[in-house]
């Protein structure tokens, strides 16, 4: 039979990364497409110890029953202490536990975006956020970015003319570029948001994965009026599979997000919440990151070196992130990365073609590479294949131009 | 500062049960308000054994990483076998794992409901579904119910005149009434849905909690064309806190729900999925229910007897469910259960006043009582207090009438 789906989902198909993740679960593909933290850095032993202690103390039954939608008081308090390390003050009633950072983003759009509303994003930005905005029938609009962060002229122009509801940013080790906004840029964009009455959604899952350079304060730590909604996911520093994140927001906003969450899934899984709470309380979050961050540094350096070695000179401009999971490449204009991707998958390697990260679908010569989830020798092998494919594409394109000029 | 929330959430406040659940977490209140399964029936030992085996076999790391949005293949297959026991055939690609039945409902509305669309529900129905429909700016419309199920004349009339997108039903041990639709009524409403092109959402979290009478086939088992979306939650028979349920739907619908879920929370918690999978595979679901169902029977009988004993004769019409969690009371028209609730909470007992379950906010003389989560002696004590409060309310109302007639 024919199904008549809602307008909001009619045009929406699965996100590319999700579909690729499915593809790469086959196993024989070398994937630089996902956003998985390094297996070696997940605190498996700590989580085991937490589960053992819970069961031995007879506490399991307690976490099998229903809980409240905002999350357990103990976990909200534990997140409060983590926030404070970065200068963010959020009481438990300004904190909402969500089922991964993704749900935090979804609830922000649910609470603020009406059909047709403009939502500003960096170009390029986290592709799933673009999908979420569309699922609420909002209109994502890209803001140009610079080496410092957002292009403030473009941002102001768009705030002035489009009356956007939200500005969405991943200001530290951005997905997909790995870039970090300067403190000055953060202050300036907050001031613009104040002036034009725009809420900021600050998505901050990567900041703790810093392997060089100096920390930059979260925008939320500069916010005096409750204009910033801050989302801290534990997916990259604890476990993606357990689906735990926290949102810090002014109390009226937090309450609205809780109402949205009641409809969505009642509450975040109680066993996951418990494991996250005990892990944060143990103080092992920072210890664990400090012990493992050299793996990320090593892998990023391996990727940077391999890209420089294997990609023909002058063909690729890449970012050089100080943390996070991603390197971003802008290739010669003659290369279409959607087509490159199809050829790469034939060679059993994967990345994410860049178009999906742009609000307007531009960026056809860009791509995102994940460096966190493969050892250096695999990174080297993968980049060698990628470099060869790029070289071949350029050679073919030269031949075509030559033929055309005949 | 003033926040400008989206239209969809502007009018929506927290659901009554959620707020009450928070209230009753204080501890000194005797609550008949929630929908919690009996603590004694949660398979704590089985879940412990599953977690132990997972850790001992070194499998924990695997469930800490990201998974696919539709849920693990193993859990979908395990649900498929559970469905088959009730005559429902659903392949793994017609099955979507969701973070509790609530998320299944939310995804159905996300996939089908446009602003202004009519959505038919039984009057009264599960209150959170009314909230979900409103959060998608749909318009819930109540259909009258009879002892057999839905009033088919009223249903047809509303299908004909309102072109609803969905019909939502909890046909077995309904929330809030505890009533069960007859097989004949199910066939008839499916035929009407076929005739008028309406999708049916069948929410079936309670059917396995049958303590007397004979099972009635799920509507989904009668569906030959893919018109029914069937939601089977494990919250009442395994663990509410772990947030696991499955949706069975025709493949194009399942795919759309997966797209919706990608935006919502990427995937259901992997540790919860694993525990559910192993529990279903072990065959202990039915064993566990068979071993514990006498507790539900006992508690329902205690509640029925206490209501008959303590509520003044002729004042209360109540349902007599053969399973599930709830008894529904329709009181004398002079009693407003919102006001009764306020007085009940002063006496440290809680129930859910019935208005919230009606699409049009009627039902001011009705209330829902949960019998599963308190031992018989507490049920007796609670109903004694409730009966006394009802008696006092009627006496006061008589006095007022007497004064008025002076």
Strand content of chain A: 5-15%
Our measurement of the CA-to-CA distance between the termini of chain A, rounded to an integer number of angstroms, reads 54 Å
- Biggest sheet strand order of chain A reads 2-8-7-6-5-3-4
Largest sheet of chain A: 7 strands, mixed
Rg value of chain A? 22 Å
Unreliable spans of chain A are none
Give the oligomeric state.
Answer: homodimer
Q: What can you see in these coordinates?
A:
The structure is a homodimer of 406-residue chains. With 406 residues, the first copy, chain A, is an alpha/beta fold. The first copy, chain A, is 44% helix and 13% strand. The first copy, chain A, is built from 13 helices and 13 strands. The first copy, chain A, has helices at 7-10, 16-24, 44-56, 73-85, 101-112, 127-135, 152-162, 183-196, 251-265, 270-281, 284-310, 337-346, 376-405; strands at 30-31, 95-98, 118-122, 139-143, 166-169, 199-203, 228-233, 245-248, 316-318, 326-331, 349-350, 352-353, 366-370. In chain A, the strands form 3 sheets. Chain A has a 7-stranded mixed sheet, with helices on both faces. Chain A has a 4-stranded antiparallel sheet with strand order 9-10-13-12. In chain A, a hairpin with a 7-residue loop joins strand 9 and strand 10 (326-331). In chain A, helix 4 (73-85) packs across helix 10, helix 5 runs parallel beside helix 6 and helix 5 crosses helix 9. Chain A is globular. The termini of chain A are far apart. The relative contact order of chain A is 0.16. The model of chain A has no long low-confidence stretch (mean pLDDT 93). Chains A and B meet through helix 1, helix 2, helix 3, helix 5 and helix 6 of A and helix 1, helix 2, helix 3, helix 5 and helix 6 of B.
